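Quick one - inputs below.
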Amino acid sequence: MAAVKFNAERCKGCELCVSVCPKQIVKMSEKFNSKGHRFATVTEQEKCLGCAFCARICPDVVIEIYK
Amino acid sequence: MAAVKFNAERCKGCELCVSVCPKQIVKMSEKFNSKGHRFATVTEQEKCLGCAFCARICPDVVIEIYK
Amino acid sequence: MAERLMMKGNEAIAEGAIQAGCRFFFGYPITPQNEIPEYMSRRMPEVGGTFIQAESEISAINMVYGAAGAGARAMTSSSSPGISLKLEGISYLAGAELPAVIVNVCRGGPGLGGLTPSQSDYFQATKGGGHGDYRMIVLAPASVQEILDLMYEAFVLADKYRNPVMVLADGLLGQMMEPVTLKEFQDLKIPAKPWATTGVGENERIRVINSLSLQGEGLELINQRLQQKYQTMDQQEVRYEEDGTAEADLIVVAYGTSARVAKSALDKARLQGRKIGLLRPITLWPFPTARLRELAEQGKKFLVIEMSAGQMIEDVRLAVEVTGVRANLFAKLNGAIPSVNEVYQAIMTTADKGEI
Amino acid sequence: MAERLMMKGNEAIAEGAIQAGCRFFFGYPITPQNEIPEYMSRRMPEVGGTFIQAESEISAINMVYGAAGAGARAMTSSSSPGISLKLEGISYLAGAELPAVIVNVCRGGPGLGGLTPSQSDYFQATKGGGHGDYRMIVLAPASVQEILDLMYEAFVLADKYRNPVMVLADGLLGQMMEPVTLKEFQDLKIPAKPWATTGVGENERIRVINSLSLQGEGLELINQRLQQKYQTMDQQEVRYEEDGTAEADLIVVAYGTSARVAKSALDKARLQGRKIGLLRPITLWPFPTARLRELAEQGKKFLVIEMSAGQMIEDVRLAVEVTGVRANLFAKLNGAIPSVNEVYQAIMTTADKGEI
Amino acid sequence: MSLEAILAGFGGQGVMLMGQILAYAGMCEDKHVTWFPAYGPEMRGGTANCSVVISKIPVGSPVISEPDLLVAMNRPSLEKFEKTVKPGGILCYNSSLIEIKPERNDLKVFAIPANQIATELGNSRVGNMVVMGAILELTQVVKLETVLKTLQKAFAGKKQNLIPVNQAALEAGMKLVQGK
Amino acid sequence: MSLEAILAGFGGQGVMLMGQILAYAGMCEDKHVTWFPAYGPEMRGGTANCSVVISKIPVGSPVISEPDLLVAMNRPSLEKFEKTVKPGGILCYNSSLIEIKPERNDLKVFAIPANQIATELGNSRVGNMVVMGAILELTQVVKLETVLKTLQKAFAGKKQNLIPVNQAALEAGMKLVQGK
Amino acid sequence: MERVFGKPAGLQEQEFHYCPGCTHGIIHRLVAESIDELEVRKRTVGIAPVGCSVTAYNYFNCDVQQAAHGRAPAVATGIKRVLPENIVFTYQGDGDLASIGIAEIIHAANRGEKITVIFVNNAVYGMTGGQMAPTTLLGQKTTTSPFGRDAESMGYPIKVVELLNTLTAPVFLARVSVHDPKQIVKAKAAIKKAFSAQVVEKGFALVEVLSTCPTNWGMAPVEAMKWVENQMIPQFPLGILRDFEEVAR
Amino acid sequence: MERVFGKPAGLQEQEFHYCPGCTHGIIHRLVAESIDELEVRKRTVGIAPVGCSVTAYNYFNCDVQQAAHGRAPAVATGIKRVLPENIVFTYQGDGDLASIGIAEIIHAANRGEKITVIFVNNAVYGMTGGQMAPTTLLGQKTTTSPFGRDAESMGYPIKVVELLNTLTAPVFLARVSVHDPKQIVKAKAAIKKAFSAQVVEKGFALVEVLSTCPTNWGMAPVEAMKWVENQMIPQFPLGILRDFEEVAR
Ligand SMILES: Cc1ncc(C[n+]2csc(CCOP(=O)(O)OP(=O)(O)O)c2C)c(N)n1
Ligand SMILES: Cc1ncc(C[n+]2csc(CCOP(=O)(O)OP(=O)(O)O)c2C)c(N)n1
Ligand code: SF4
Ligand code: SF4
Ligand code: SF4
Ligand code: SF4
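Output:
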């Protein structure tokens, strides 16, 4: 059972994480962070495999994985 | 029948020509040219094959071959 | 009249060169002058010219050397750190007496410094940053239109004297946009260059482009000839702009960007009834020494405005101090552009107290 | 007393550096300073130091940057064209405030020039040939013994101010042999360098060697700090030698080789009853401006002897002209060393006519 | 009528283009104009701003310390430049992105929901033209027609099709502040 | 006794070493000395010369325009420097290589068959020491012993064995000019 | 639950200034992870280039020197010769390393300097606005090759790893990519190996990392990753060309 | 009898200033012969390097530019771009081309500049007095490697031709020697071919010529020739690595 945590303020909205999530549970929010970027979030935590694909490909160290 | 001509004033006495003459007819003179170098000369012209080994290896374009 | 259009200073540098018949550009990217190579890479093919992005500034200046030696109007451009790398090559151009144009869109230093506009390469440009006793004509435009015009001048002077010419701008002039009028694309009479190495062809004697002289005396003769040439330049090529110097009590001396700021500031000071004049050197070398001394002899005060720790001030002092007059300095260090207000304050203080 | 031996100036540069605790030499061959790297390549292994023949002057100065940033006493040496190539690196050293010693065994320019001794890199050394507002202390020895002594000084000053220091010699000083006395090989207390990048270890904060400042204000602050440092140097580090200046009517100003020639010449002039003094700047930057002005105020005449078209003359004029005194120049252009006779003539004429 | 304006936002919001069009229009009306850009340290998507001077006399310094007009398209820009505006000057800010309110009360302040209006007009990227419209209306520094002519030039060729929506944005912006 | 000498020849004739040994000996006798080399444009085997100053007072310029003594080991050197010698000065030339005669008659001229004597001594390379001997005898600028000590230093180690022949050359040179 | 993935200690808190989706950030993290895992952070000195990563000293959590454009390998040489016990690495872009700095990298590699070089190949000059790099692909449009790189006048993309592979001294030479998680894992392994070459005092190690520049390529980050896979890799084949362990065996 | 061998028209009357037995002279002659035989003297522009051959403009009987140390390929680029119809060649030593000038040669080669490069490898810096060159052999003593070149701190001799052979653009790359008459004939053929590459407008051509420096090697000229044969050739194998005609076939 795994958890993925996004630090919205660091996110730049590049959507790379979205593109690699095998479960397609990473989605972009409608809101903007203070830097003006739409940020990534995870929907349906429970589906997360903790594969860390999103975390590995995130260029901005936004994502933490817990197990 | 060939003839080899040395321009003594250009010669720097490196003796490379002497080292390559198949007929060993190229010799260093006892005299010095005005630059102070002992210069190469050919003894026994008649033996010259005109192979131009001496001329080819001479770094200072001292040697002319005639045929 | 040809149509007016808005141009960036950097684009004007590039287009101006093309208008002047430059068909060979060799450069390497560096902020704040990237629009120059970028413009050239688009424009040169249109006019049958050549653009090469060299592997380095050093390579670029040496490509210029080869092209100039082959008789072409050639140029390179860079910014401060890149110009430092070109100095050996510039010294070679001067030593071999090759005409070429080098543009320095100056930025803040030392070292990697910053991207903000600066005037701290004045010494490097005017006293010869490279080795040996050489001089370059150094042109310092203060507007986008003047950039366009001086680029043409630069190539003409380079050919006239067979000498490198530097155009010294800064990041502000390079980045700002102003309206300009392009002269019609006239084709120019580029002087014949019998000395150029284009292959001996039917000529008697081969031609050699060279700056080496292994016998000492030879080198002394070369340097005598060079020094005579530099004297001629000094006598014939001084350029400057004056504004209200005749009636002024205080003469502000500034070039390029700081002359623009100074202009706004002294207009303000004039509104306060002060008699302020502006002398803007357009050639930084040769320097308007004679004119400044003339003004000094009339007993005027002087204030130099520079975006550096104070470099041109030395040439102003060399011009005026023999007359017993001292020159004041308002120096804005690398990193920021002086505000109209601080320059205004400096002018008012000098005008009233006689010094800062 | 330690034994006396004959040494070439270039060898003294190398041995002097080793005596000063320099253990890292990075250089590239160029005449007339080749004995320096050659000596180092033999000597460094003996003292557990490192000698690297870099692939170029540029690489060498950047190796010096890395080594200095890592806390070592490091140096490079070259001659005029090679120094031009190092100017970007020197500007970086100044910007990053790294202590290092650069030796220029000056030769004739511009361009490839020639191998004869010269003093035409004075501007480059003192006004900052590289980009930006930086200064280096520039030491100008006039004998082989003084070379030995000043090399030690150079490293001490570099560390004291965290600033590059240049030793400016010429081919004559580099090639000539004179007797010298080596100080005993004392081990020296090289100051601690907490700023050096040696790995954070247990430190709280990481250390950064850097000359970049992307925010303008930041760069302005850096330049303010640098300018303050340069002022301190200017106040504290001026060095010069005087000979008979007190009673003299005419002061000859010359450094390095031309000071040697001047000395022979003025001895001759003194035999003719002329009152001649010699002021020999040992630091070319900071320049002995205050002392020269003092002498000028005493109404002395001045004659500058240079192996260049006239470069130091500007600093002399900046020093004396405010007092209404003018300075004369005897300039020997690149290519030859002035003969004692021609300098003697120049001295006599100036002494008698007041000008050349 | 002359003007010293600072237009600021983050990259991609089109503040630079806005400034260029304004200056260009000024030129077409035979005024002296300058445009000068400034970028933040970020590579891209960082803050960017430009200074535009439109004047009857030749322009000295193109760098503005006390603007008559400030356009702030994002929060950092507002925070950075608000204090610099001339007393009595104009401040337009993009209320779709900036949730805070300007602090100064000695300015003519206009909240312009640029992104929102743009999205309504069906092209999220024309927010800059909405603000531009407001500026024209508020300063009268150049005529709308001149700006439209300029757009023709700017969007000549492939971008032709973008002209109508930009024009709509301009007009929407003008309407928004009319009579205010 | 002080001296300004120019020693000239082509590379390989050992004029540089000759000069260094002379200067070194001068130092050992607590004189002020300088040695300064000059090379022709040729890579090697070209002309080379050095100036040596030995003096009681500190030496100003190490470069000599009017030598008291000229040693010319080959013809180009004689032709180049003969005119520079101080009137009344000394000129030693290597008569084994130089077939022409010096032109000046205001000098003390000595023809020294250096190569010939050297070859006789069984080492063609000690011609320089033959001339050196002559100089010592003619100028008395430094003592023979001092020079011999210097040779000990110069040839310490591997070259030890060369000392006797060099000494012989020195003495031969001295003898040659004795009482002349 | 415990954290199994997150910011390595080798990185400072500071957020990157890189553009959205720029893979400089990924490469930074891989370097930092390697430094952590080899436990050498305290004795590591990095060299920042001139390029978008010029401010790497704000990100790497170790001592850093900022070097002149292209000269990082010379600076690294100076540092390593003074501090042979330290781990010294340079982080350089393709303009920095393959254009202005090609002499410095070749000679540092040829001397076998015991340093690690992270070579970020993104086929353009990023910082200065997307000009042509020596690694720009044929036909690729950049701000200084507006009509596409043309072999006739601009030459061909330079294969740095293959070039260096003609030298004797280097002990580790590899080319990797970070365009997807699988490749990122491989890239990490290569980078770690390149650092370990110093830990075991082997010699010169270089890893070329294919990287994106969405901004100057004018692509969305995801699209840029595809471009690396489909356009760059065919031109710059991935793989380990030299490996000191292979040699050892 | 008619003259069958002597000074080519491509050489001026001026005698060389090179040391006795220095093979620079042979190479000069081969270049001049090639220029004669291809009948291109009138449209040839040579570039003299900084090195012993700095005064090549006193010897070659064609227009010549003297270039800054190492920059001859950049200068050649400038000339050739202005004068595409001309034959442009550089003549460079190993210090000039392989040390300070390695960036310029690599990038000129990579751009495929249509120039001919004569690269004289004599394993030392001649003009400056025999310092170590990038091509100095391991163990070879020079004035800056007094104890012999030591791979650990000075690296290995660089094989320039092999290095350039990793690039796409060059059309002719060869290494030859002039240590005996047979080799001289082969060297001549290669040099002539390298010039002909320009005549037929192919592209970048370089010939590395193994050469002697008797003076700085401290050897008699004849001995030096043997040293080339026995010491240098094993390290720098002779041969034609790339040939546009081969490719053509
Ligand atoms: C001597 C010098 N030349 C040029 C520059 C300008 N410059 C800054 S970064 C850069 C190139 C950056 O490209 P790259 O190395 O590929 O790194 P990237 O930005 O793509 O990561 C250049 C040319 C400089 N700062 N100094
Ligand atoms: C910028 C610069 N650096 C160094 C030198 C000094 N220098 C002259 S020739 C030379 C090297 C010559 O060696 P090489 O290229 O091998 O040619 P060779 O003399 O052996 O024929 C050097 C370093 C110089 N003139 N300019
Ligand atoms: S990869 Fe990172 S930066 Fe990009 S959207 Fe996902 S979380 Fe944000
Ligand atoms: S041509 Fe041949 S045979 Fe005749 S001399 Fe020369 S080498 Fe000897
Ligand atoms: S410009 Fe390119 S390389 Fe630089 S940060 Fe942005 S995306 Fe990355
Ligand atoms: S030094 Fe060497 S390379 Fe130079 S000319 Fe003499 S032998 Fe030839």
